[in-house]
Amino acid sequence: MMMLLLLLGSLAMSIAAPIEECNLDTVAIVGGTYKVSEDGEKVEYSCPKGKYPFPSATRECEGDGKWTNEKEKAICKAIECPKPVMFEGGEHDPRKPKYFVGDELYFECWGGFKMFGSKNRTCQENGKWSGETTICDDQEGHCPSPGIPIGASKVGTSYRIEGKVSYNCQNGLRMFGSKTRECKENKKWSGSEPSCRHSYTYDSPEEVAKVFGSSLAETIESSDPDRVEDTSDRKLQVKTGGLMNIFIIIDASKSVGEKNFTTAKEIAEIFIEKVSSFDFTPRYSVLTYASQIKKIVTLSESDINTQADKVAEAIKKFKYSEHDDKQGTNTRGALQEVYNQLSLDNLRNEKFLDHSNIIILMTDGNHNMGGDPSVEVNKIREFLDIRKDHREDKLDIYVFGLGNQISQDELNDIASKKDREKHVFQMESVDALKKAFDEIIDETSAFQMCGLSRDHSEKQTTHDNEKYPWIAKLTITRPGGVENCKGSIVTQNFILTAAHCFHLDDQPHFVTVELGPSDSAKVTRKVQNIHRHPDYNPSGKKDKNIPKSFEYDLALVELSQKIDFSSTVRPICLPCTSGASWALQQRDKAVSCKDHENFLLSGDLVKALFITEESRNTLEQMNVQIKQGNWRQGCLKDAEKVEDFKDVVDIKDVVTDNFLCTGGVDPEVDPQTCKGDSGGPLIIQYKKRYIQVGVISWGTVNSCKGYKRNQVPAGSRDFHAGIIPGMEWIKKIITQELIYLN
Ligand code: MG
User: Fold this and answer.
1) Containing domain of residue 626, as a range?
2) 388 with 537, same domain?
3) Which of 196-210, 258-272, 582-596 shows the lowest per-residue confidence on average (mean pLDDT)?
4) Distance from the CA of 336 to the center of ligand 1, in angstroms?
5) pLDDT at 737
6) Residue 187: inside a domain, yes or no?
7) Selected catalytic residue, list 255, 276, 678, 716
8) How far does CA 137 lie from the centroid of its chain?
9) Residue 570: what pLDDT?
10) How far is the CA of 16 from the centre of ligand 1 (A)?
11) In terms of pLDDT, which residue wins out, 176 or 458?
């Protein structure tokens, strides 16, 4: 027995002994730099912009003391874009043996052919052509011409039903998307457009955000059972949610490494947070895998899996070290777990087949156990009763490349392939992937959600209006002069503002509304009608010695042409509407207007904000506190000091309960509103959503000079017309576009 142990001991020694260190003298790269991993076993190259490391981005020390491809000297080569191999129905120019970053291609169609896609394309730093595949189509086929991506050749020219085309990439390029496509009865091609890429080509964060974002938006919207098919009129949708499963799978194997794994976890958290601000509630299942599969949240944990914060928390808590054997990459095993959870759900859930399913897989590919993962994908498809052209919308598999040595073919095999969509993404780095997820929500402007603004935590936005996309600027040009006011976009047809912005005899054509950024992208609208609150009556309280009353200082401006929403032009939420219920995550059907009021306006001091124009065209957020309870007494006292109200017996006749009060220097100094701020929204932020609770009406002191804001004087208070007291009137004016609570 003793003998045997000794033997085993020496055997282990003899296996470990011959590992030799690799010589760092041979790894240097011409024109670039390199980094050596801590254990000295891996070298990572980087090159300046427009170049890539050749023959590979990394080298590993191979046991025998040699680096991978050691004989080939590393060099930074110029990035090339694929060369057009074949083009139908037109010409392209210039024809060159190679195309480098910055080179352009121009396309023209022959007579009788119509152009689709991009007319001009530029070779980009990531080795891809800008824009979309240029197609010259004679429009004779049942399906439109599927085109030939640059770098590919096509076989097959029949575009009738069941006609097939297949593609090949030029030597040295790898194919993403579908090799073969078939013309379907619905005039669409099966699969997704192929692309041919060099090994060094990656997707930019902007591309991923846009493409994944819009694909996700499409999936979410089509999962809505009350979806109105006519997309031009989606305003009255009620999103019931709860009909989607989202599986998040993260590869934790050694090849991915702890750093990338940790970033992938952060990406998952960002994703969940973004999705939670959409108007629907998916169920999450989260798992990670190496040799073994670890379940973080499953489909059967109904107490957690619909709660975004809890799911994100569980992901955060999971440690890389919980995978004890990281040698294996069991991608199929992970997909099998998805299959198992789906089958369990099928037994419990009679609406099982109504659910849409999204699988988000982050991996470097390179599976080395469990077998071919795409076999499991087919099993899942079968189980969900998905066949060609049948229920395809019930499953989307997105695969994101994780790490710098990615098996592109494997990623492509697993990912879904759908017409005009893309499901596989490869980034330059994991940080670039994270950046892409950060930007996703901004691109999904298809959502007509209220109170959403571009998340500007990481990146300076181009336009203030992406931060405050609901701000409207009103210009009233009357014979006597020009006046400016602010307002807020509440629907595609209505702007909410202050009634005092208008004279009684103002005509709608005096008013111009400006929306969105202040540059050429700005949107302007004419006005069809000005609706003032019927109880707004400035001279109505003269008997109480109030020279001008601002009670119910609310007006709705009806536009002569509706607005198309975008990332710079979106509506704010109004309390007591279903939109605000979603924003406040109060999705119970029984939630009432009173519940919104209690939620938004409880406590003596309520954090709020308004938006002002600090200098011309620069919007800035001002943080204030709404004074309630005992704090409100100070507001009333300061109102009493106003010269105009010196003969008023009861100041509560001026400052009725319908006003919200901000300003003053206690407990903190609140910035004050200035004249041009009138009509703008007083807003409460909840998570990433914004709900308007007041309209800026009047103040006790005016110390502003133009755009310059002076130090806030003591006794400076601002009063805002409350939205909730005005709700009954708003209901009567906006009858179509908002859904109101009781
Ligand atoms: Mg691996």
Assistant:
1) 464-733
2) no
3) 582-596
4) 17
5) 84
6) no
7) 678
8) 34
9) 87
10) 22
11) 176
In this structure, the answer to whether residues 555 and 413 fall within a common structural domain is: no
472 and 328 part of one domain: no
403 Cα–ligand 1 center, Å? 10
330 Cα: distance to centroid of ligand 1 (angstroms): 8
Amino acid type, 28: A
Q: Are residues 304 and 389 in the same domain?
A: yes
Q: Are 239 and 320 in a shared domain? A: yes
The number of distinct structural domains making up the chain is: 4
Choice among 553, 638, 670, 677 that is catalytic? 553
Written as one letter, the residue type at 479 is: P
Q: What is the distance in A from the centroid of ligand 1 to the CA of 408?
A: 13
Q: What mean pLDDT do residues 176-200 have? A: 91
pLDDT of 10 reads 42
Active site (annotated) includes residue 520: no
Please report, for the domain that includes residue 269, its CATH number: 3.40.50.410
Q: Exposure string (b/e) for 621-645, b if CB count within 10 Å is 16 or more?
A: ebebbbbbeebbebbbebbeebeeb
Q: Which two tokens stand for residue 516?
A: 């969105």
Tell me if residue 519 is catalytic.
Answer: no
Distant-in-sequence, close-in-space partners of 101: CB < 8 Å, separation ≥ 6? 50, 78, 79, 81, 123, 124, 125
Instruction: Indicate the residue among 118, 147, 182 that finishes a domain.
Output: 182
The answer to whether the beta carbons of residues 418 and 177 sit under 8 Å apart is: no
**Distance of alpha carbon 474 from alpha carbon 320, whole angstroms:** 55
**Chain-centre distance for alpha carbon 19:** 48
Domain with 161 in it: what CATH number? Answer: 2.10.70.10
Q: Which residue has the higher pLDDT, 193 or 63?
A: 193
pLDDT, tens only, 328-361:
999 999 999 999 999 999 998 888 888 889 999 9
Q: Residue 344 Cα, ligand 1 centroid: separation in angstroms?
A: 28
In a domain, residue 188? The reply is no
Q: Do 115 and 45 have their domain in common?
A: no
Position 327 pLDDT exceeds 50: yes
Is position 343 annotated as part of the catalytic site?
Answer: no
Tell me how far the alpha carbon of residue 249 lies from the centroid of ligand 1, in angstroms.
Answer: 13
- Claim to verify: residue 658 and residue 718 sit in the same structural domain: yes
pTM of the model: 0.63
How many Å apart are CA 195 and CA 562, to the nearest integer?
39
Question: In this structure, is residue 534 part of a structural domain?
Answer: yes
Q: Which of 198, 323, 367, 500 is catalytic?
A: 500
410, 313: one domain: yes
219-255 tens-digit pLDDT: 665 555 444 333 332 222 224 444 789 999 999 999 9
In a domain, 109, yes or no: yes
Measured torsion, CA atoms of residues 508, 509, 513, 519, in degrees rounded to the nearest 10: 180
